Amino acid sequence: MNFTAEDWKKLSVPLLVAVVLLAAGGGLIWHARTVLQQEAQNLAAARAERAQARERLSKIAEEEREVKTKIEVYRQLRDLGILGEEKRLEWVDAIARIRAGRELLDLRYSVERQKLLLSAPGKPANVDFNSSTMKVELALLHEGDLLGFLADLRASGNAYYAVQKCAITRTGQAATGANLVPRLRASCAIDLITILDRAAKA
User: What pLDDT, in 10s, does the model give residues 143-165?
Assistant: First the structure.
């Protein structure tokens, strides 16, 4: 089919419109792709930011749990009277109460000088774990007297009581009539451990 000059003249406007529309369509497609890529980048950035926020929240929650746990441990130690300087008068009172309450016939003890077990680094100052060894000599009617004494001593607080060793020997004495005669003797070494927070002391 041959087009005359007149035909080309009539088609020129529609062809021009078609070219303009194609160019506009191409431009719109390019713009849409550009916007889509930008939004995809924005979405990826938002997701990454949200993941970081979740991670930060998770760390904060974990730190909060750790702090709560440490506070609970601190309260328990405080309630037991383990924190702070040695409480030797309280130790003496506790042993006197145990002796009277359990009706122990013979109980002798001595407490050695305090020594540093460990100085743990802390902020703003170190935490010192100190120990004083108590040597105890007990006359026993039976082994239960020793176990009861140690249980009462631990329950009295004012230190953490760590038994190093206990030795039980027979006295060789026989029971005589109505009198109670100790047939066993115990010799123990017990560490009385206290914790001193240098920061709290300061």
Answer: 889 999 999 998 888 888 899 99
CA distances from 108 to 42, 94, 112, 142, 188 (A): 79, 14, 14, 17, 11
Task: Kindly report the backbone phi and psi dihedral angles of residue 195, in degrees, each rounded to the nearest multiple of 5, phi listed first.
Answer: -120, 125
* CATH number attached to the domain at 88-201: 3.30.70
Residue 126 CB coordination number (10 Å):
14
Burial status of residue 58 (CB atoms within 10 A of its CB: 0-12, 13-18, 19 or more):
exposed
Where do the domains of the chain lie? 1-80, 88-201
Q: What Rg do the C-alpha atoms of the chain give, in angstroms? A: 42
Cβ-in-10-Å burial (0-12, 13-18, 19+) of 136 comes to buried
* Residue 160 dihedral angles phi and psi, to the nearest 5°: -100, 120
Q: What is the pTM of this model?
A: 0.60
Q: What is the per-residue pLDDT across 45-85, written as a single tens digit (0 to 9) for each? A: 889 899 899 999 999 989 888 888 878 877 887 777 788 78
**pLDDT for residue 11 is more than 80:** no
